[in-house]
Amino acid sequence: MTEDSGTGAYVGAHWYDADAGPLVRPYAMTGGRTKPGPNNVRFDLIALVVVDDSPPGTAEEALLGPEHRALLSLCRSETQSVAELAADADLPVGVVRVLLGDLLEAGYVGVSRPVPPAQLPDERILREVIDGLRAL
Predict the structure, then answer these.
(1) Alpha carbon of 54 to those of 58, 65, 97: distances in Å?
(2) Exposed e or buried b for every residue in 38-57, given b needs 16+ CB within 10 A?
(3) CB atoms within 10 A of CB 86
(4) Are strands 2-3 and 80-81 parallel, antiparallel or unpaired?
(5) Distance between CA atoms of 105 and 111, rounded to whole angstroms?
(6) CA–CA distances in Å: residue 69 to residues 32, 104, 118
(7) How confident is the model at residue 2 (pLDDT cuts 50, 70, 90)?
(8) Spatial distance between the Cα atoms of 11 and 107, rounded to a whole number of angstroms
(9) Rounded Cα–Cα distance for residues 95 and 36 (Å)
(10) pTM
(11) Pairing between strand 48-51 and 2-3?
């Protein structure tokens, strides 16, 4: 490979833009895993992630990968949803789910499940209310 002096890109390499930075495949960040943790926890896009009040020590945190630490720092600033974390970390949602599974299993974060939407009233009841309002 030789460097093109005009662009800083390597001729014959896969880099076409000097500003692209290193390319890491998503499966490399997750160790080839596609499911979060052995418990197969399901992280909804709107599930809220918070840093645990009593996380493991900082020595253990130093053993985490850079993506794990990035997610932790984002969660420390404010409670965020899985979708927000993926956007802020500039990572695919699938990767964020696997990484959050690791953090949840290690005790670094907690996840609050979204509240199920309230059931809508029966259509018959809504029609009776509309008819009653029209009768006024």
Answers:
(1) 11, 20, 22
(2) eeeeebeeebbbebeeebee
(3) 21
(4) unpaired
(5) 11
(6) 19, 13, 36
(7) very low
(8) 46
(9) 9
(10) 0.62
(11) unpaired
Determine the residue type at 121.
P
Beta strands in the chain (DSSP E): 2-3, 10-11, 48-51, 80-81, 109-112
pLDDT single digits (tens) 54-104: 766 666 666 788 888 889 889 888 889 999 999 998 888 888 888 888 888
Identify which of 51, 94, 55 has the alpha carbon closest to the alpha carbon of residue 71: 51
Q: Are 55 and 108 in contact (CB under 8 A)?
A: yes
Other CB atoms within 10 A of residue 98 CB: 24
Which backbone phi and psi does 96 adopt, to 5 degrees?
A: -60, -40
